[in-house]
Amino acid sequence: MAINYDTTRPIYEQIIDYILKKLASGEFSAGSKLPSQREMAKVLSVNPNTVQRAYREMEIKDLVETRRGLGTFVTESEDKIEEIRVEMAEELVENFIEEARALGFTEKEIEKMLAEKFKEFEGGNTDGA
Amino acid sequence: MELKETFKPIVKVNSVSKKYGRTIALQDAEMEFPEGELTALIGPNGSGKSTLLKILVGLTYADSGNAEVLGLEPGIQLKDKVAFLPEIDHFYKWMKIEQIIDFHRSQFSNFNYDKAVELTGEMNLKTDSKITSLSKGMRGRLKLVLTLARDVALYIMDEPLSGLDPQSKGYILEILNSEFAVGGKSVILSTHEVIESEKFYDYVIMLENGQVRLQGYADALRDEHNLSIQDLTREVFA
To answer: Which spans in B82-201 are helix H?
Structure first.
């Protein structure tokens, strides 16, 4: 389905990651309504209680808000979403640098490789998506 | 990471022991099943799972200790409060599916006929099929239909996935998942393997030689051991 589960990690955490990615990418925009817990459980083929747990955790972190009888909504705060977006990108970059370093590449070499890759992307697909 | 849960037991098992002759089925088994969650009772064959479930629904008795189900002692008083799916096929062979549905309607006050017909379709079964024409997987699906068509607070299922083809397992897990509303119904399901079903369980209890080896919320156990429930099962029962 939409998530490739790693069953050695808590599943609700993976649901949170999945939703955060959609927030960061703008697929779920600020203030918009999230699918109901049941719908989400169906789409992700997990137990609805697990989705509930994920929503609750996100609520504690002020990423979403549950309005009684109406459902769960993404935070109205664009700043908060931007914060998540930056955090996710930083994590990606950190992992990338760590792994490239582990392979023995220097900062210069990594920069060079990045620049070359960017050129390659520009040749075809400018947004790199 | 912290996972706070408010644990409200729907079933309590207090130091239950049971022997069949000299064979020990349960020995001082002590556990609680949470309300509103889907709990897997996991254990190898002969670990005492079926005996425990039979005690909970009043089909057999504990030698010592006791169980509380929905705050009641197991027995006839639970007939309209708990739906039980037995491991054995309990159908009259000469019946058609529609006759079995009618029969169940006549036996249980809270049997939802429309729901049964709807679920029959969702399970890709036909109401005019004869029982003798059904494969094992189809009979397994029919058992689930008849169990879930009952409007009760607690569903107890003995090995509903055992020995079924992957397609039937898929149907059953999907329907269980969509029928199971958040915080609503409680399900206890016994199984000896969790490979296809692991991400559907909220809570797991591992039983071996009639005793509880491990119990807890599935995600909390994953977090604590860095293992899938499947791998954890292998480790616990090694």
So the answer is: 97-107, 113-122, 136-148, 166-179
Which residues span the domain enclosing A66?
A: 11-76
Q: What does the pLDDT read at residue B220?
A: 93
B204 touches A at CB < 8 Å: no
Spell out, as residue ranges, where chain B has pLDDT lower than 50. Answer: 1-4
Cα–Cα dist B152/B145, whole Å: 14
What is B168-188 written as a DSSP string? HHHHHHHHHHHH--TTS-EEE
Residue B93: what pLDDT?
86
CB contact set of B52 (below 8 Å; sequence gap of 6+): B13, B16, B26, B29, B41, B190, B207
- Identify the closest residue of chain A to B226 by CA–CA distance: A8
Is the residue at A2 inside a domain? no
ipTM of the complex: 0.71
**Facing residue for B202 by CB, picked from A5, A45, A50:** A50
- Each residue's pLDDT tens digit, B116-172: 999 999 999 999 999 999 999 999 999 999 999 999 999 999 999 988 888 888 888
| Residue A3 is assigned to a structural domain of this protein | no
